[in-house]
Amino acid sequence: MLDVFGSRFGACDGVSRRSFLRVGALGMAGLALPELLKGRAEAAKKGDAVKDTAVIQIFLFGGPTHLETYDLKPDAPKEIRGEFKPIPTNVDGVSISEYFPRQARAMDKLAIVRSLHHETADHGSGTHWTMTGFPAASSFQRANDRPSVGSIAAKLRGPNASGVPPYVSMPNMPFFGSASYLGAGYNPFNVEGDPQGSSRVRNLDLAGGLNMGRLEDRKYLLSKLDRIESERDATGTMDGIDHFTSQAYEMVTGPAARRAFDMSKEDPRLRDRYGRSPIGQRCLLARRLVEAGVTFVTITEGNWDHHGSIFPQCKQMLPPLDNAVATLVEDLHDRGIAERVLVLVWGEFGRSPRISNGGRDHWPGAMSALVAGGGLKMGQVIGATNRKGESPSERPLRPEDMLQTVYHVLGIDPLHEFANESGRPMPVLNSGNPISELVG
Length: 440
Prior knowledge:
Elements: E1 2-10, E2 16-23, H1 38-45, E3 54-60, H2 78-81, E4 86-88, E5 95-97, H3 101-105, E6 110-116, H4 123-132, H5 149-156, E7 167-170, E8 189-190, H6 212-232, H7 237-253, H8 255-261, H9 268-274, H10 278-292, E9 296-301, H11 310-334, E10 341-346, E11 350-351, E12 362-363, E13 367-373, E14 380-382, E15 384-385, E16 392-394, H12 399-410, E17 417-419, E18 425-427, H13 436-439
Parallel strand pairs: 3-9, 3-10, 6-14, 7-8, 7-9
Antiparallel strand pairs: 1-2, 4-5, 6-13, 10-13, 11-12, 15-16, 17-18
Helix pairs in contact: 1-5, 6-7, 7-8, 8-10, 10-11
């Protein structure tokens, strides 16, 4: 086994989010991934229609402020409206933060949901809710008790092309982004390194002491051992293992994944448009991945827990996010794949209307999300909050509704059931509806 660790980022509850990926053995070779490749084949075997859609989720961990981004309240009292001013967009009647000028010019390709809300102000519980569609069983919980949306996609859809994983995360494992009872094979393929340079994807490297020659030897030995088992197997299980192990071997040894992760192939001018920032270059890499056949990508952008210094912090953090999101959406359109790739930007909750000690506190009563592409209806704002940004005043929606919309784009039945560790049937989602204004 190979343990791979990445960077840390924290929140006010003291919980440290650290990437962790345990790469299991491909037989005896020290490689990962056979289980990741089963979902698409299973769906095709059942005769289900399999979409080629994909999702890029940009998760702003810590609780991004809605009042400084997509839901400003310029007519509210000063202690609520804050320092930032709204600017008009290219959609009549829609305004967003002055620190989002590029998104303002691309608003016809975007949609804003302003009326999301739930009931938990804890980072962990809120993240579990938005990542899975279910509230956490406990505020002290540190592991999923439901599979994340990315893991559901990995299980039921698999990758859109051979040679790449179905579910990728960067720069680390998303908090509550794992597969729970679906099994570790549906956890995300974790990308390490600094995307601003020529980062190396360590998870595509061979285990220590291996080279391609020795890997071929081990593959040959594994095939002999599997043949013995196959001869004893009356169920056909070994044939399936052989098939998916071969696909995993192809991913590690073949060109598709390595080519998708190779940022040196991009025009430096396009990299500049995305912004030479971590969020900018990760958005560019996400576009490369979905173009290559990855079904679900989660980018976690930390440090949005602004209890103090919210305005100087946002002045630093909003412009790189603006560049990254606007360029990603424009790039998807330029390449003709915007209709099949959904971009979702959100966090675990919003921020409190009243400013205290230069910041805003946790506020699950109101939060905003940005969506783009995926064949959904763009150029609109859905829902509204009251004058102070405290709670929905129009079209109240919940995380389950947003995830229902994601599953609609992916062609996943939310009523599909899995058996958990105890054999109990567990649905993908048991509440919510796709947001009708988006899906038409």
